[in-house]
């Protein structure tokens, strides 16, 4: 699984001559603290490739929240068409 870091969320990604599209239903489950390793194993069994994209705004890089923790990027999953 390839991991990209971006500052904006693209609609699709072309990588190794394959097109990957955003899957919001699985990505929303990731934000609810479900481990990504479980999804990787499921999609490997289905012979589907996936890409993880971590999105963090440029303005939030190096910034801290009210609890003095660095802002964390949002994880999104892209599945092969």
Q: Could you say which overall geometry the principal axes of the C-alpha atoms support?
A: globular
Distance between the termini: 15 Å
User: Approximately how much helix is present in the residues?
Assistant: 10-25%
Strand order of the largest sheet: 1-4-5-3-2
User: What about the largest sheet?
Assistant: 5 strands, mixed
H and E order: EEEHHEE
Poorly predicted parts: none
Instruction: Give the number of DSSP strands.
Output: 5
How many structural domains are formed by the residues? 1
User: What is the number of helical segments per DSSP (H or I, 4+ residues)?
Assistant: 2
> What fraction of residues sit in β-strands?
25-35%
Radius of gyration: 14 Å
Mean pLDDT: 86
Structural class of the secondary elements?
alpha+beta
Describe this structure in words.
- The protein is built from two helices and five strands; from the N terminus they run E-E-E-H-H-E-E.
- The protein is of the alpha+beta class.
- It has one domain.
- It has a five-stranded mixed beta sheet, covered by helices on one side.
Task: Name a few traits of the molecule.
81 residues; alpha+beta; 5-stranded mixed sheet
How are the elements arranged and paired?
Layout: E1 2-6, E2 12-15, E3 18-22, H1 24-30, H2 36-45, E4 50-55, E5 74-80
């Amino acid at each position: 699984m390839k991991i990209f870091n971006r500052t904006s969320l693209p609609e699709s990604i072309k990588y190794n001559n394959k097109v990957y599209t955003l899957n919001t239903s699985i990505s929303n489950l990731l934000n609810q603290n479900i481990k990504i390793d479980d999804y990787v194993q499921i999609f490997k069994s289905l012979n589907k490739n996936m890409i993880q994209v971590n999105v963090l705004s440029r303005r939030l890089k190096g910034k801290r929240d009210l609890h003095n923790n660095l802002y964390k990027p949002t994880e999104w999953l892209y599945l092969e068409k």
